Amino acid sequence: MKVGLTYDLRSWYLDRGYSMEDTAEFDKQETVDAIAGALHKMGFETEPVGNCFQLIEALASGKKWDLVFNIVEGLYGDGRESVVPAILDQYKIPYVFSGPVILGVSLNKYLSRLIVSAAGVPVSPGMLIPTKEDIKKCNLEYPLFIKPVSEGTGKGINEKSIVNSFAEMKEMAEWILSRFDQPALLEEYLPGREFTVGVIGQGNGSVAIGGMEIECKDNLPYSVEYKENYQEYCKYFPMAKDVTEECKKVALDVWIALGAVDAGRVDLKSDRNGRICFMEINPLAGLHPIHSDLPILSRMTGIEYQPLMEMIMKATLERHHLTL
Protein backbone atom coordinates (compact mmCIF):
# COMPACT_ATOMS: atom_id res chain seq x y z
CA MET A 1 0.00 0.00 0.00
CA LYS A 2 1.36 3.42 -0.99
CA VAL A 3 1.01 6.16 1.66
CA GLY A 4 1.54 9.82 0.85
CA LEU A 5 2.92 11.97 3.66
CA THR A 6 1.50 15.49 3.97
CA TYR A 7 3.12 17.83 6.47
CA ASP A 8 4.17 21.43 7.11
CA LEU A 9 7.96 21.49 7.37
CA ARG A 10 8.98 24.39 9.58
CA SER A 11 12.18 25.04 7.65
CA TRP A 12 10.21 25.44 4.40
CA TYR A 13 8.35 28.43 5.88
CA LEU A 14 11.32 29.92 7.79
CA ASP A 15 13.25 29.99 4.50
CA ARG A 16 10.44 32.12 3.09
CA GLY A 17 10.58 34.72 5.86
CA TYR A 18 7.97 33.50 8.34
CA SER A 19 8.75 33.96 12.05
CA MET A 20 9.39 31.33 14.70
CA GLU A 21 6.00 32.14 16.26
CA ASP A 22 4.22 31.91 12.90
CA THR A 23 5.67 28.43 12.40
CA ALA A 24 5.41 27.17 15.99
CA GLU A 25 2.94 24.41 15.06
CA PHE A 26 4.98 23.07 12.14
CA ASP A 27 7.17 19.98 12.07
CA LYS A 28 10.85 19.17 11.82
CA GLN A 29 12.18 16.80 9.18
CA GLU A 30 12.96 14.28 11.92
CA THR A 31 9.22 13.98 12.69
CA VAL A 32 8.45 13.16 9.06
CA ASP A 33 11.35 10.70 8.98
CA ALA A 34 10.11 9.00 12.15
CA ILE A 35 6.59 8.61 10.74
CA ALA A 36 7.96 7.22 7.46
CA GLY A 37 10.25 4.84 9.34
CA ALA A 38 7.42 3.51 11.48
CA LEU A 39 5.21 2.98 8.41
CA HIS A 40 8.03 1.17 6.58
CA LYS A 41 8.38 -1.25 9.49
CA MET A 42 4.67 -2.05 9.09
CA GLY A 43 5.15 -2.81 5.40
CA PHE A 44 3.82 0.43 3.89
CA GLU A 45 5.49 2.22 1.00
CA THR A 46 5.70 5.98 1.61
CA GLU A 47 6.10 9.05 -0.57
CA PRO A 48 6.80 12.53 0.84
CA VAL A 49 4.29 15.07 -0.50
CA GLY A 50 4.63 18.15 1.70
CA ASN A 51 2.25 21.00 2.48
CA CYS A 52 -1.09 21.95 0.92
CA PHE A 53 0.56 23.84 -1.95
CA GLN A 54 2.78 20.86 -2.77
CA LEU A 55 -0.21 18.50 -2.45
CA ILE A 56 -2.17 20.55 -5.00
CA GLU A 57 0.78 20.44 -7.40
CA ALA A 58 1.15 16.68 -6.94
CA LEU A 59 -2.55 16.01 -7.55
CA ALA A 60 -2.55 18.29 -10.60
CA SER A 61 0.33 16.24 -12.03
CA GLY A 62 -1.76 13.08 -11.67
CA LYS A 63 -0.25 11.55 -8.54
CA LYS A 64 -2.41 9.29 -6.35
CA TRP A 65 -1.93 7.31 -3.16
CA ASP A 66 -3.87 4.52 -1.48
CA LEU A 67 -3.85 6.51 1.76
CA VAL A 68 -2.45 9.81 2.99
CA PHE A 69 -0.90 10.27 6.43
CA ASN A 70 -1.83 13.89 7.10
CA ILE A 71 -0.25 16.12 9.75
CA VAL A 72 -0.60 19.47 7.92
CA GLU A 73 -1.46 22.30 10.33
CA GLY A 74 -1.95 24.99 7.69
CA LEU A 75 -1.02 28.64 7.80
CA TYR A 76 -4.00 30.98 7.31
CA GLY A 77 -7.51 31.25 8.72
CA ASP A 78 -9.56 29.29 11.22
CA GLY A 79 -10.06 26.50 8.64
CA ARG A 80 -6.35 26.04 7.98
CA GLU A 81 -6.20 22.51 9.39
CA SER A 82 -9.19 21.56 7.25
CA VAL A 83 -7.65 22.41 3.87
CA VAL A 84 -5.75 19.17 3.19
CA PRO A 85 -8.50 16.75 4.32
CA ALA A 86 -11.07 18.76 2.32
CA ILE A 87 -8.92 18.47 -0.82
CA LEU A 88 -8.38 14.75 -0.26
CA ASP A 89 -12.12 14.23 0.20
CA GLN A 90 -12.74 15.73 -3.25
CA TYR A 91 -10.26 13.28 -4.78
CA LYS A 92 -11.75 10.41 -2.73
CA ILE A 93 -8.35 9.64 -1.20
CA PRO A 94 -8.61 8.24 2.34
CA TYR A 95 -6.40 9.77 5.02
CA VAL A 96 -5.28 9.36 8.60
CA PHE A 97 -6.88 11.52 11.33
CA SER A 98 -10.05 13.57 11.45
CA GLY A 99 -11.83 15.27 8.56
CA PRO A 100 -12.28 18.97 7.74
CA VAL A 101 -15.35 19.63 9.87
CA ILE A 102 -13.89 18.04 13.00
CA LEU A 103 -10.54 19.79 12.58
CA GLY A 104 -12.23 23.15 11.99
CA VAL A 105 -14.52 22.87 15.00
CA SER A 106 -11.72 21.59 17.23
CA LEU A 107 -9.39 24.43 16.27
CA ASN A 108 -12.10 26.91 17.27
CA LYS A 109 -12.02 26.51 21.03
CA TYR A 110 -15.29 28.36 21.51
CA LEU A 111 -17.24 26.08 19.16
CA SER A 112 -15.69 22.96 20.67
CA ARG A 113 -16.69 24.23 24.15
CA LEU A 114 -20.31 24.59 23.02
CA ILE A 115 -20.48 21.05 21.63
CA VAL A 116 -18.68 19.46 24.55
CA SER A 117 -20.77 21.34 27.12
CA ALA A 118 -24.00 20.29 25.37
CA ALA A 119 -22.82 16.69 25.73
CA GLY A 120 -22.61 17.13 29.50
CA VAL A 121 -18.85 17.54 29.84
CA PRO A 122 -17.77 20.09 32.49
CA VAL A 123 -16.29 23.33 31.12
CA SER A 124 -15.27 26.53 32.85
CA PRO A 125 -17.68 29.47 32.38
CA GLY A 126 -16.50 31.56 29.44
CA MET A 127 -17.34 33.98 26.64
CA LEU A 128 -16.07 35.08 23.26
CA ILE A 129 -14.69 38.56 22.58
CA PRO A 130 -14.95 39.09 18.80
CA THR A 131 -14.43 42.90 18.90
CA LYS A 132 -13.14 45.61 21.23
CA GLU A 133 -16.74 46.65 21.90
CA ASP A 134 -17.41 43.20 23.42
CA ILE A 135 -14.74 43.61 26.11
CA LYS A 136 -17.08 45.60 28.35
CA LYS A 137 -19.67 42.78 28.27
CA CYS A 138 -17.54 40.55 30.49
CA ASN A 139 -19.40 39.46 33.64
CA LEU A 140 -17.22 36.47 34.55
CA GLU A 141 -15.58 35.97 37.93
CA TYR A 142 -11.87 36.85 38.18
CA PRO A 143 -9.23 35.52 37.85
CA LEU A 144 -9.75 34.79 34.16
CA PHE A 145 -7.70 33.10 31.44
CA ILE A 146 -7.55 34.66 27.99
CA LYS A 147 -6.22 33.25 24.72
CA PRO A 148 -6.79 33.42 20.95
CA VAL A 149 -9.82 31.33 19.99
CA SER A 150 -8.16 29.46 17.10
CA GLU A 151 -4.47 28.94 17.80
CA GLY A 152 -2.46 25.90 18.86
CA THR A 153 0.87 24.98 20.48
CA GLY A 154 0.38 27.69 23.12
CA LYS A 155 0.51 30.56 20.61
CA GLY A 156 -0.84 33.78 22.10
CA ILE A 157 -0.38 32.49 25.64
CA ASN A 158 2.14 34.12 27.99
CA GLU A 159 2.66 35.23 31.60
CA LYS A 160 -0.13 37.84 31.16
CA SER A 161 -2.76 35.30 30.10
CA ILE A 162 -4.03 34.93 33.67
CA VAL A 163 -5.82 38.24 34.33
CA ASN A 164 -7.01 39.55 37.69
CA SER A 165 -8.76 42.77 36.74
CA PHE A 166 -10.74 44.42 33.97
CA ALA A 167 -7.72 46.54 33.02
CA GLU A 168 -5.49 43.48 32.61
CA MET A 169 -8.17 41.66 30.64
CA LYS A 170 -8.74 44.66 28.37
CA GLU A 171 -5.03 44.96 27.60
CA MET A 172 -4.70 41.26 26.66
CA ALA A 173 -7.97 41.17 24.70
CA GLU A 174 -6.92 44.16 22.59
CA TRP A 175 -3.48 42.60 22.00
CA ILE A 176 -4.99 39.27 20.86
CA LEU A 177 -7.51 40.99 18.57
CA SER A 178 -4.74 43.02 16.97
CA ARG A 179 -1.89 40.48 16.90
CA PHE A 180 -3.85 37.41 15.79
CA ASP A 181 -6.75 39.06 13.95
CA GLN A 182 -9.24 36.72 15.60
CA PRO A 183 -11.54 36.71 18.64
CA ALA A 184 -10.23 36.20 22.15
CA LEU A 185 -11.64 33.41 24.30
CA LEU A 186 -12.16 34.38 27.93
CA GLU A 187 -12.71 31.73 30.61
CA GLU A 188 -12.83 31.64 34.37
CA TYR A 189 -9.38 30.42 35.38
CA LEU A 190 -9.03 26.78 36.32
CA PRO A 191 -6.52 26.78 39.20
CA GLY A 192 -6.09 23.03 39.61
CA ARG A 193 -3.95 20.28 38.14
CA GLU A 194 -3.44 20.03 34.37
CA PHE A 195 -3.56 16.84 32.31
CA THR A 196 -3.43 15.68 28.72
CA VAL A 197 -4.95 12.33 27.72
CA GLY A 198 -4.24 10.30 24.58
CA VAL A 199 -7.15 8.70 22.72
CA ILE A 200 -7.13 6.11 19.92
CA GLY A 201 -10.05 5.08 17.69
CA GLN A 202 -13.48 6.48 16.94
CA GLY A 203 -16.95 6.53 18.45
CA ASN A 204 -17.79 4.00 21.10
CA GLY A 205 -14.74 1.98 20.08
CA SER A 206 -12.41 4.76 21.24
CA VAL A 207 -9.87 3.98 23.95
CA ALA A 208 -8.10 6.40 26.30
CA ILE A 209 -4.61 4.91 26.36
CA GLY A 210 -3.39 7.03 29.27
CA GLY A 211 -2.25 10.50 30.09
CA MET A 212 0.18 12.67 31.93
CA GLU A 213 0.09 15.53 34.40
CA ILE A 214 1.83 18.77 33.44
CA GLU A 215 3.47 21.14 35.91
CA CYS A 216 4.90 24.44 34.65
CA LYS A 217 7.61 26.45 36.37
CA ASP A 218 6.22 29.10 38.75
CA ASN A 219 2.71 27.83 37.87
CA LEU A 220 2.79 29.93 34.69
CA PRO A 221 0.63 29.03 31.65
CA TYR A 222 1.68 26.24 29.25
CA SER A 223 2.80 28.73 26.58
CA VAL A 224 4.52 28.26 23.22
CA GLU A 225 7.84 29.11 24.91
CA TYR A 226 7.27 26.53 27.65
CA LYS A 227 6.19 23.86 25.15
CA GLU A 228 9.24 24.38 22.95
CA ASN A 229 11.54 24.33 25.99
CA TYR A 230 9.59 21.88 28.13
CA GLN A 231 12.73 20.21 29.53
CA GLU A 232 13.66 23.50 31.18
CA TYR A 233 10.25 24.85 32.19
CA CYS A 234 7.95 21.84 32.67
CA LYS A 235 7.67 18.56 34.51
CA TYR A 236 5.62 15.67 33.17
CA PHE A 237 4.27 12.91 35.40
CA PRO A 238 2.12 9.83 34.77
CA MET A 239 -1.45 10.51 35.86
CA ALA A 240 -2.00 9.62 39.50
CA LYS A 241 -4.44 6.80 40.23
CA ASP A 242 -6.84 9.15 42.03
CA VAL A 243 -7.59 11.07 38.81
CA THR A 244 -6.98 8.50 36.07
CA GLU A 245 -10.53 7.16 35.80
CA GLU A 246 -12.16 10.61 35.76
CA CYS A 247 -9.65 12.04 33.27
CA LYS A 248 -10.09 9.10 30.90
CA LYS A 249 -13.88 9.35 31.09
CA VAL A 250 -13.93 13.08 30.40
CA ALA A 251 -11.44 12.67 27.53
CA LEU A 252 -13.52 9.93 25.91
CA ASP A 253 -16.74 11.92 26.34
CA VAL A 254 -15.06 14.88 24.60
CA TRP A 255 -13.62 12.71 21.81
CA ILE A 256 -16.95 11.06 21.06
CA ALA A 257 -18.96 14.29 21.32
CA LEU A 258 -16.74 15.99 18.74
CA GLY A 259 -16.50 12.95 16.47
CA ALA A 260 -12.71 12.81 16.35
CA VAL A 261 -11.07 9.71 14.86
CA ASP A 262 -7.88 7.64 14.79
CA ALA A 263 -5.77 9.42 17.45
CA GLY A 264 -5.22 12.66 19.33
CA ARG A 265 -5.15 14.33 22.72
CA VAL A 266 -7.63 15.97 25.07
CA ASP A 267 -6.36 18.66 27.46
CA LEU A 268 -7.99 18.90 30.88
CA LYS A 269 -7.65 20.93 34.07
CA SER A 270 -9.35 20.75 37.44
CA ASP A 271 -11.40 23.61 38.85
CA ARG A 272 -11.25 25.02 42.39
CA ASN A 273 -13.33 22.06 43.61
CA GLY A 274 -11.14 19.44 41.96
CA ARG A 275 -13.62 18.67 39.16
CA ILE A 276 -11.94 17.75 35.87
CA CYS A 277 -12.92 20.20 33.11
CA PHE A 278 -12.38 20.25 29.36
CA MET A 279 -9.90 22.81 28.01
CA GLU A 280 -8.98 21.85 24.43
CA ILE A 281 -8.86 18.92 22.04
CA ASN A 282 -6.06 18.24 19.57
CA PRO A 283 -7.19 15.72 16.93
CA LEU A 284 -4.01 16.47 14.93
CA ALA A 285 -1.49 15.87 17.71
CA GLY A 286 2.27 16.20 17.27
CA LEU A 287 4.13 12.98 16.50
CA HIS A 288 7.77 13.78 17.11
CA PRO A 289 8.95 10.51 18.72
CA ILE A 290 10.77 12.23 21.60
CA HIS A 291 9.34 15.71 22.17
CA SER A 292 5.62 15.57 21.28
CA ASP A 293 3.06 15.14 24.07
CA LEU A 294 1.23 12.13 22.61
CA PRO A 295 4.36 9.96 22.26
CA ILE A 296 5.59 11.17 25.68
CA LEU A 297 2.39 10.20 27.50
CA SER A 298 2.24 6.95 25.54
CA ARG A 299 5.72 6.00 26.76
CA MET A 300 4.59 6.65 30.31
CA THR A 301 1.95 3.96 29.87
CA GLY A 302 4.44 1.53 28.31
CA ILE A 303 3.52 2.17 24.65
CA GLU A 304 6.64 3.01 22.64
CA TYR A 305 6.54 4.96 19.37
CA GLN A 306 6.30 2.01 16.97
CA PRO A 307 3.38 0.34 18.79
CA LEU A 308 1.66 3.75 19.04
CA MET A 309 1.94 4.22 15.29
CA GLU A 310 0.65 0.71 14.72
CA MET A 311 -2.39 1.46 16.88
CA ILE A 312 -3.07 4.61 14.86
CA MET A 313 -2.77 2.80 11.54
CA LYS A 314 -4.93 -0.08 12.73
CA ALA A 315 -7.68 2.41 13.66
CA THR A 316 -7.34 4.15 10.29
CA LEU A 317 -7.42 0.98 8.18
CA GLU A 318 -10.47 -0.33 10.04
CA ARG A 319 -12.29 2.99 9.61
CA HIS A 320 -11.62 3.08 5.86
CA HIS A 321 -12.21 -0.69 5.44
CA LEU A 322 -8.69 -1.10 4.06
CA THR A 323 -6.16 -3.91 4.41
CA LEU A 324 -2.39 -3.69 4.07
Q: How are the secondary structure elements laid out?
A:
Elements lengths: L1 E5 L3 H5 L14 H14 L2 E6 L1 H9 L6 E4 L12 H8 L4 E2 L3 H8 L1 H10 L7 E4 L14 E5 L13 E2 L2 H15 L3 E5 L5 E7 L6 E10 L7 H5 L1 H4 E5 L2 H18 L4 E8 L5 E7 L10 H8 L4 H16 L4
Parallel strand pairs: 1-2, 1-3, 3-4
Antiparallel strand pairs: 5-8, 6-7, 6-8, 9-10, 9-12, 10-11, 12-13
What would your notes on this structure say?
With 324 residues, the protein is α+β, with helices and mostly antiparallel strands. The protein folds into three domains: 2-96, Rossmann fold; 115-119 and 191-320, ATP-grasp fold, B domain (D-amino Acid Aminotransferase, Chain A, domain 1, 2-Layer Sandwich); 125-188, Dna Ligase, domain 1 (2-Layer Sandwich), CATH 3.30.1490. 37% of the residues lie in helices and 22% in strands. The chain contains twelve helices and 13 strands. A five-stranded antiparallel beta sheet has the order 11-10-9-12-13, sandwiched between helices. A four-stranded parallel beta sheet has the order 2-1-3-4, sandwiched between helices. Helix 4 links the parallel strand 3 (67-70) and strand 4.
